[in-house]
Amino acid sequence: MASPKKKLQGLVAATVTPMTEHGEINFSVIGRYVDYLVEEQGVKNVFVNGTTGEGLSLSISERCRVAEEWVTKGRNKLDQIVIHVGALSLKESQELAQHAAEIGADGIAVIAPFFLKPWNKDVLVNFLKEVAAAAPALPFYYYHIPALTGVKIRAEELLDGIQDKIPSFQGLKFSDTDLLDFGQCVDQNRQRQFAFLFGVDEQLLSALVMGATGAVGSTYNYLGKKTKQMLEAFERKDFSSALNHQFCIQRFINFVVKLGFGVSQTKAIMTLVSGIPMGPPRLPLQKASREFTDNAEAKLKSLNFLSCTDLKDGDMEACS
C-alpha cells in the first residue's frame, strides 16, 4: 500500500458493500472485488463505506470489519484505500477514524453531520477537527455532498484557512453540481497542494477543465476503463476525444437516471458487469427491479461497455 502521506488522485471507485440476500455483509467476495477493479477496470484507489457503500446504514462494528477487509485484501494490490468515517455521533466518528489509522488505511473522509446540523462554517470545522484529531497521521478529506446532508455551507468557504485548524487536511470529495463553488475551491487554493476530487461522474470532464485532480464515483466500479480513456485524452490535450468519451458515459447515466438510479441500481449493475454477487441493499433501500437490470444491460451492450455478442449488426449508438 501507498505511503500514508501520499495524496489521493486519479480515479477512485466508491465501493459498494456486498450483501447476502438476507442483508448481512458478504465479506467473502471482497477479495474478488479488489482483483476485478485492478485487473478489469484499471482502478487502484477505493473510497470505502461512503454513500455507495451504504456506510451510514451499517453498524459501527460492520463498518470496521468492512474497512479491515478492504485493507487486508487490497494490500500490495491497491494504491490508496480511503475510509469514510462520518457519522452523526462525534464519538462514533472518532472511533472509526482511530480504527482506520490502526488498520493501516491511507486516509479518512468525513461528511457533515446531517440530523443536528452545523449552522455555519466554524461549527462544521470544529466537528471535522475533532474527528481528524483522532487520527492525526492520516490524510483527512472533507466529503461535500449537500444534496444528501442538507448542509449548504459552500466548500470554498470551508477551505479558507482550514489547514490552520486541521493540519492533516489534504482535500475534498466534491459531490455537487455547483461548478462555481468547485472552481473557486481550486482557484483560491492554488498554493496549497490539495486534492480536488470530483464526485459527479457525468460532469467529470467539466471538473477536469476547472482543475480537478481526481474523481471519486460509483460508476468507476464498472466504467473505470472507459473513464480512464477520457482522462488520458484530456491529459494529452485531445479535448475532442475526451468530450466523446464523456458524452458516451453520459448516454448511459442519462438513460439509467430516467429509470431511477441509486445505490440499489449500482449494486445490480456491478453484479451484472463483474459477475460478483453484490446482493441487495439494506433497508430502507429497495432491491433494483429485474426490468431495470435488463434495460441497463441492453444499454451497456449498445454502448459497447459490455461484450456485444447479442447486438444486431449496424447498431449506430456504440461508442468508439
Provide the descriptors you would attach to this structure in a database record.
alpha/beta, carbohydrate metabolism, NanA, 320 residues, TIM Barrel, 13 helices
Give the CA-based shape. globular
State the share of residues found in helices, binned by percent.
Answer: 40-55%
Strand order of the largest sheet: 1-2-3-4-5-6-7-8
Head-to-tail CA distance between termini:
34 Å
Question: What is the rounded Rg?
Answer: 19 Å
Total helices: the number is: 13
Explained architecture:
The structure is a single chain. The protein has a single domain, classed as TIM Barrel. Helices cover 44% and strands 12% of the residues. It contains 13 helices and 8 strands. The chain has helices at 30-41, 60-74, 90-103, 121-132, 146-149, 155-159, 162-165, 179-187, 204-210, 224-235, 239-259, 263-274, 290-302, and strands at 10-14, 45-48, 80-84, 107-111, 140-144, 169-174, 195-198, 214-217. Strands 1-2-3-4-5-6-7-8 form an 8-stranded parallel beta barrel, surrounded by 6 helices. Helix 3 links the parallel strand 3 (80-84) and strand 4 (107-111). Its EC number is 4.1.3.3. Its main location: cytoplasm. Pyruvate binds at residues 52, 216.
Write the layout of secondary structure elements.
Blueprint: E1 10-14, H1 30-41, E2 45-48, H2 60-74, E3 80-84, H3 90-103, E4 107-111, H4 121-132, E5 140-144, H5 146-149, H6 155-159, H7 162-165, E6 169-174, H8 179-187, E7 195-198, H9 204-210, E8 214-217, H10 224-235, H11 239-259, H12 263-274, H13 290-302
Parallel strand pairs: 1-2, 1-8, 2-3, 3-4, 4-5, 5-6, 6-7, 7-8
